[in-house]
Amino acid sequence: PLFAPMVVGLLLRGIAATFSTGYLMHDDHFLVVEAGASWAAGEDYNRWLPWNQTGVPKAHPANFAYVGTQFLLFNLLPGLGLSDPQQQMWVIRILHGLYSCLLIALAYGLARNLAPNQTSVAVTAAWWMAAGGFWPLLSVHQLVEMVCIPPLLWAFWALSREEHLGWKAILTAGIGIGIATGLRYQCGLFGIGLVPVLLFQRQWRALISIGLTALTTLVVMQAPDLFVWGEPFVQLRAYIDYNAENG
User: Fold this and answer.
1) How far apart are the C-alpha atoms of 15 and 188, rounded to whole Å?
2) Mean pLDDT across the stretch 98-114?
3) pLDDT value at position 24?
4) Exposed (0-12), middle (13-18) or buried (19+): which is 173, by Cβ within 10 Å?
5) If you write DSSP's letter for every residue of 176-192 in order, what string do you get?
């Protein structure tokens, strides 16, 4: 049942990656592409790095975890003979499109677990992820709001497989929520939403274990902050301060 939506999803993402050049929104270009590419070129667009700031260094309110992966790609691509910016961006959009195809399979699996006797529901979910709305267009752009969704969906797909959660589901859920929150802090709300559900189900062990696993994963994802700033959660604090000041 996944074959057709997966093929169509891949085709639409290939079209979007090829023809949706430039940037779609301010965030995808100026918070990800421009920053990562400038670091790879030995520069520092917008002075994110503390050693390029004058006076008291101020952290940028955006996590290095995702933009750091794009920096690594921009470092790698010239070694593969891809030095033209248009070529580099096409490859990056294709990679994002392939990554987003995980959504098709995960949405199918999640819906199948929630409605085991209604395959049509799962197929519909897969088609929505493959071709619905603006998914193909958004998924090939460098938007952290899109990149955080597959690990989040992976976590809840794992939770939907078992009524009484075993250690595999617990670890998968904790790691998925931790990665998603590390990429985009708001995803932590999904983890908080699990608390009353698991309390109601009296799954105390699962609740504590998922929480600890998610927290550990989130801490590991602070490695860029440790490298750049010398302490964890610097950009999380900057993010909270920025939104508090500009709310």
Assistant:
1) 33
2) 97
3) 87
4) buried
5) HHHHHHHH-GGGHHHHH
